[in-house]
Amino acid sequence: MNPVIETKNLSKWYGNVLGLSDVFLQISSGITGLLGPNGAGKSTLLSLITGQIKPSIGSVSLLGERIRNNYPLLARIGYCPERDSFYEEMTGWQYLTGLLKLGHFSSSQIESLAEKALDIVELVEDKHRVIRSYSQGMRQRLKFAQAIAHNPEVLILDEPLNGLDPLGKRKLISLIKSYRQKEKTVLVSSHVLPEIEALTQQIILIHQGKIFAQGDIHYIRDLLETHPHKISIRCSHPRKMASEFIHKPYVLKVSFGTSQDSLIVETNNRDGLFSIIPSLSVKNNIQIDEITSPDDNLQAVFDYLVGK
Amino acid sequence: MIHIKKGQISFYWKSVKDVFSFSFSLGKRTKRTRVFYLLSFLPVVMALVIKFAQYFYGRTDIQGIYIFSNIIMMFYLQFLILLLALFFGSSVCLDELEGKTLTYLTTRPVPKPAIILGKYAAYSVLIVLMTGAGVVFSFLILNCENLGDVSLYKILLRDISVLCLGLISYASFFTFLGTFLKKSVMVGLIFGFGWENVVQYFPGSTQKFTIAHYLKSLLPSLNTGRFSFLLFRLEPTSPQAAVGMLFLITGFFLVLACVIFSFKEYLFED
Amino acid sequence: MSIKERGYTHWDGKLKESRFPWWPISRLGIRLTFKKKFFKFFFFLSLSPALAYLVGIYVSERMEEFRFMVQESVSFLQINPNYFKSYLTGDFLYFMIILILVFAASGLISDDLRHNSLQLYFSRPLKKRDYFMGKSSVIVFFLFILTMIPSLVLFLMKLIFSGSFKFFSTYPWLPLSIIGYSLLLTVFFSFYALFLSSLSPNRRYVAVLILGFYFFSDILFGIFKGIFHSHYFSLLSIKSNLQQVGALFFQQKTPYEISWVFSLLVLLGVCVLSALVLRKKVQGVRIIK
Questions:
Q1: Residues belonging to chain A with any Cβ–Cβ distance to chain C shorter than 8 Å
Q2: Which residue has the higher pLDDT, A220 or B102?
Q3: B29 interaction partners in chain A (CB closer than 8 Å)
Q4: Rounded distance, CA A296 to CA A191, Å?
Q5: Of all residues in chain C, what percent are helix, strand and coil, respectively (each to 5)?
Q6: DSSP-derived pairing of the beta strands A229-235 and A210-216
Q7: Nearest to B30 among A69, A79, A89 (CB)
Q8: Which segments of chain C have a pLDDT < 70?
């Protein structure tokens, strides 16, 4: 399958400051999370992908076409910028219909598309209020509405969950997730790990302008062979289980958890460890209650990759 | 949605129209537009005061059209059109940069030159309307005794045309400055209130490097009393050449603004 | 640990009140102005009249050597209070003051309105008075460098070049006039610029207003004077009013045949109006309608 977004050797300098360095990416349809701390280069990457700025080196293609100064292609993209900036003196309705007009829709189309987008973000009742009187959450939702209003094939969302309350976040997350079913391509950036985790398993880790990893969160985790995985096992005889594990070559460390019936095993071969657990259980008559991987989340992967 | 094909002239035109209508509706509702509307109506108040004072002082010997011409020369040509063109012209690009809203326009399927041309057209119409309304009302007040005189309307038409030409040419220059420089207002102020006036004292053809020269060439010279220095050493260009030159200036700076806007990378200040 | 115990640490010290709480605002304003592109160029350009007047004083002391150059300008080179008045009330100096205000003062309050930072100021031990002091002292700093300091230096140079205190003994009040008129200029332009800066969060708009009002007032005067030939219309012009009051400070004939009292009242009126608007516009909390 052809990638929807592709970057080759992409680099960007702002004077002497390196914004992005040598980025090779291939992003297919579905939701992809771009994760990195503040100043990592997320917004630079998204600006390059949407053609806002030109690369110092390398190229970006979107839907198989060059993006920079390719305005017809922009009709197929929805972009939600990170900045909280609006035409403050307009009402929500004027803002949305005005921007749709720039997409060259007919008047009737504009009205129905705007109405639909406002309905999705639950701003229909406030559509005739001036934007400067909107709350932070409403502004964020309106920004999202302008990105989705023209029903684009590719959605680029730069920190879309900023400033939303927990309920608003949950609603927007489920809304973004619904685009996966519509077979759209969504690239969403965030510096908040749980937000990305809640949205997708497909992630790109970025730090100091470099891509650290790309792929499924589990896949990335597996790539890090040198980094031990932690497996927590809750069972009837944790000490007995520990004595069995300790002799295995890929088990690096065994410790006991806070509760009396659990043990934590550190291994550099997770699949190997999982494959022997059933036989050990049967052989020693140990009842396994639960197996979890406490560090199989983005925080762990990210911390490891950035060398914390 | 219409089918978008790159390079189509009709599509360019439609894009300009769409940006125009968006920017016009945005521009007309801002507070500062209202303030400038008020400012452009000051000559109307002035005309009313003058008319009232004329009757009060019994100075009915001064013709209304003479006062009107003085107002055109001193208030409009030397001041208001410069101020309006400077503010709205530089706003074409700078408003979007300062408000950080440029992204909304540059991520729409419109060619970048269309953004500049559409916004420039919208703001030009706004400032022409502002100026025109004030000019017409002050003309009517100052010439209320001679409203049947057709020749006066010719003067009005000529003056409005000159002001419009001034507005569009100054606005195109300031639009160019706005796309090019962050401190365009400062440079614009020095250009408008410094260079445009000072150069008239320079010898030879130097005065032809000002927009004011071509505008003044289109107006008959008159004794402007205390402000007679405004016409100091004016060696007028022929009206046809002056109009041609003003259109050329407008076109040149607009093209330049479009080219710069298409290729320059704008970064927001955070 | 219960939640109750996790309170904030309370500071038991005593807040020491600064004598000049506005100083950090001024310092920042001055520093930021100097960082602006082209500012230094214009600032030094604005000192060029002072340099020209200094040359004038030098030439006046060497009149015999320079007579071939200054045949028609001898009257100009008579160093007396009028010489200092013409420096401080010159069109070019006023124009440069306006340009410096455009650079240094247009964003003083409007930037705070734009970035919603007034509440940050007023959440600190800072009174409105301190805020205005801080902002206006940025203008005071630049205008003193343009008016008071060069004029006093010119006065001093006159004494040095002439090698005697005769000039001082003839006009002992002149330094006070210089200081007084410079103060008037500075106070007036501080009110004028801060008032306009508080009108909009858009600095460009304020810049246009600062220059626009100044020129507009003069154009208005020109039109009315041209038609009615009455000197009373000089009261409409900022520049004319300043020149009228300037003549009083330097004990010279006023340029227009009306009393300087009217001009002073107009200038005071502008300051009072500005103060009222500033009080209303600068609030810690802004209500968005």
A1: 132-133
A2: B102
A3: 89-90
A4: 18
A5: 70, 0, 30
A6: unpaired
A7: A89
A8: 1-11, 15, 63-76, 284-289
Rounded to whole angstroms, the Cα distance separating C108 from C135 reads 6
Among A14, A70, A104, most B C-beta atoms within 10 A, so best to mutate, is: A104
Rounded-to-integer distance, Cα B112 and Cα B93, Å: 11
Closest residue of B to C200, CA-based? B32
Q: With bands split at pLDDT 50, 70 and 90, how would you rate the model's confidence at B268? A: confident
Fill in the DSSP letter of residue A227.
S
pLDDT of residue B205: 77
pLDDT at residue B226, rounded to an integer: 45
Contact C202 B98 (CB under 8 A): yes
Long-range contacts formed by C258-262: CB under 8 A, 24+ apart: C258/C231, C258/C232, C258/C234, C262/C232, C262/C235
Tokens of C136: 């206006």
Q: Return the CA Rg of chain A.
A: 24
Judging contacts by C-beta atoms under 8 Å, the chain C residues touching residue B50 are 223-224, 227
Residue in this structure with the two tokens 């209202």, named with its chain if needed: B34
B246 vs chain A: nearest CA distance in angstroms?
A: 31
Establish if B5 touches chain A: CB-CB under 8 angstroms: yes
- The pair of structure tokens assigned to A172 is 């927007």
What would be the CATH architecture of the domain defined by A5-222?
3-Layer(aba) Sandwich (3.40)
Smallest Cβ–Cβ distance between A81 and the set B6, B103, B265 belongs to: B103
**How many CB atoms are located within 10 Å of the residue C120 CB?**
12
Indicate the residue type of C112.
Answer: D
d(CA C216, CA C210) in angstroms, rounded, equals 10
- Among B138, B172, B75, which residue's Cα sits nearest to residue C226? B75
Of all residues in chain B, the one with the smallest CA distance to C226 is: B225
pLDDT per position as a tens digit, A4-34: 999 999 999 988 888 898 999 999 889 999 9
The pLDDT assigned to C263 comes to: 94
Contact criterion met (CB < 8 Å) for A89 and B31: yes
A-chain CB neighbours of B106 within 8 Å are: 51-52
Angle, helices C81-88 vs C148-162, to 10°: value is 150
Which of C212, C227, C228 is closest, CB to CB, to B83? Answer: C212
Using CA coordinates, name the residue in chain B closest to C202.
B98
How is chain A split into domains, by residue range?
Answer: 5-222, 224-305
Give rounded-to-5 percent helix, strand, coil for chain A: 40, 30, 35
Structural fold of domain A224-305: Alpha-Beta Plaits (3.30.70)
CA distance B68 to B57: 18
pLDDT at B61 over 70: no
Give the model's confidence band at B240: pLDDT under 50 very low, under 70 low, under 90 confident, else very high.
very high
Predicted confidence (pLDDT) at residue A255 exceeds the cutoff of 50: yes
d(CA C225, CA B230): 16
This prediction's pTM: 0.81
Mean pLDDT of chain A: 87
